[in-house]
Amino acid sequence: MTATANFRQVAQYIGLAICGLIVRTAFGILDILWGIITEIVNGVFRVAIGVIVAILSTIAFFGFILWLFTL
């Protein structure tokens, strides 16, 4: 009886350990994927802001040149 109970308890602990390992692995993979996605989104926003700043700088430069011609 005790050998069966011990075997059942050991099997339960092994099952819980395997389930915990699977859950931790799944969360680790999700964490890696979330990091990749956030880096991509941040990069897209950084490029978009850079393009907007470049366009505004070009407009300001040509506006300054036109202003100098009016002096």
Give short descriptive properties of this protein.
single chain, 71 residues, mainly alpha, rod-shaped, membrane, transmembrane, transmembrane helix
Overview of this protein structure:
The chain has 71 residues and is mainly α. It contains 1 helix and no strands. It is rod-shaped and about 100 Å long. It starts with a helix and ends with a helix.
Q: By helix and strand content, what is the structural category?
A: mainly alpha
What's the β-strand tally? 0
Q: Quick one: biggest sheet?
A: none
Q: Estimate the strand proportion.
A: under 5%
Determine Rg (CA atoms, Å).
Answer: 31 Å
Helix proportion range: over 70%
Morphology call:
rod-shaped
Oligomer: single chain
List the uncertain runs. Answer: none
The overall average pLDDT, rounded, is 93
Distance between the termini: 104 Å
Helix segment count?
Answer: 1
Order of H and E elements: H
Transmembrane segments: 12-37, 43-69
Keywords: Membrane, Transmembrane, Transmembrane helix
Write a short abstract of this structure.
This protein is an all-alpha fold and 71 residues long.
